[in-house]
Amino acid sequence: MDQEIKIMVADESHLGYVDTILDTIEKAAKVRGTGIAKRSPEYVKQKMLEGKAIIALAGDQFAGFCYIESWGNKQYVANSGLIVPEQFRGHGLARKIKKFSFELSRKKFPDAKLFGLTSGAAVMKINTELGYVPVTFADLTDDDSFWKGCEGCVNFDVLTRTKRRYCICTAMLYDPAVHGKDEEKARLGQNSDAKAEKKESKSFWAKLKDLFS
Ligand SMILES: CC(C)(COP(=O)(O)OP(=O)(O)OC[C@H]1O[C@@H](n2cnc3c(N)ncnc32)[C@H](O)[C@@H]1OP(=O)(O)O)[C@@H](O)C(=O)NCCC(=O)NCCS
Question: Which among 65, 88, 89 is the best mutation to test ligand 1's pocket, defined by most ligand atoms within 8 Å of the CB?
């Protein structure tokens, strides 16, 4: 792809793209034969005004989109509505948009668990690269307004029949508490100076104890 594509946080200057975005999402869902969490133009506009939407543009041509939603009192965050128009696919753009959105979500909601429901191989691959792991639906938010979004899906009957325990989509979760610990461990492992200092101070106290015993 020769054209330069810019990925940015959408703002009021991008409101004019909302109809194109929703139209592209709807057409892609029809092609895939899946349902979607249908969003109104007002909802997407609001996301842009709140700085919770990411847009990719090739010049002034729409090239990709995704937005951030929070659920369960901001304990859970989802990156939803990922779309790349056909002519821009296959060049790693979805991966870049998802990474951008992931980093923005971590910045805006550092303590929230990031999650997603997907039946798409591309999203499963990208999420895995970002550190998400597959989980059961029980690990996701129990916020009814999130699950209401599934009503537009062709498989909604499966979700209701199983009382929200199973469906066609794979649930994926990134838990900062788990990842945070891994990062801390990695930091401690690398910080040999701190380890040496700790060892040194221990031997100092041991020597002192010996002196007075
Ligand atoms: C899914 C979608 C966003 C991918 O966009 P894209 O820019 O072509 O994706 P990328 O080029 O960043 O691909 C990322 C990875 O996913 C893989 N991938 C992309 N599309 C794929 C597909 N349909 N099936 C399997 N793997 C796919 C790519 O091979 C790439 O992996 P690699 O680099 O190891 O080869 C785009 O096809 C789309 O908008 N589809 C319709 C809407 C949709 O399905 N949204 C997701 C809802 S959960």
Answer: 89
Q: Which CATH number fits domain 5-174: 1.10.10.10, 3.10.20.30, 3.40.630.30, 3.30.565.10?
A: 3.40.630.30
Which of 31-45, 73-87, 137-151, 177-191 is predicted with the least confidence, judged by mean pLDDT?
177-191
Best mutation site among 21, 80, 95 for ligand 1, i.e. most ligand atoms within 8 A of its Cβ?
A: 95
Question: What's the CA-to-centroid distance between 122 and ligand 1, angstroms?
Answer: 4
Measured by CA distance, the residue closest to atom 10 of ligand 1 is 92
Q: Which atom of ligand 1 lies closest to the CA of 88?
A: 7
Residue ranges per structural domain of the chain: 5-174
Weakest mean pLDDT among 16-20, 61-65, 162-166: 162-166
C-alpha span between 121 and 172 (Å, rounded): 12
Better-predicted residue by pLDDT, 187 or 151: 151
Q: Are 159 and 167 in contact (CB under 8 A)?
A: yes
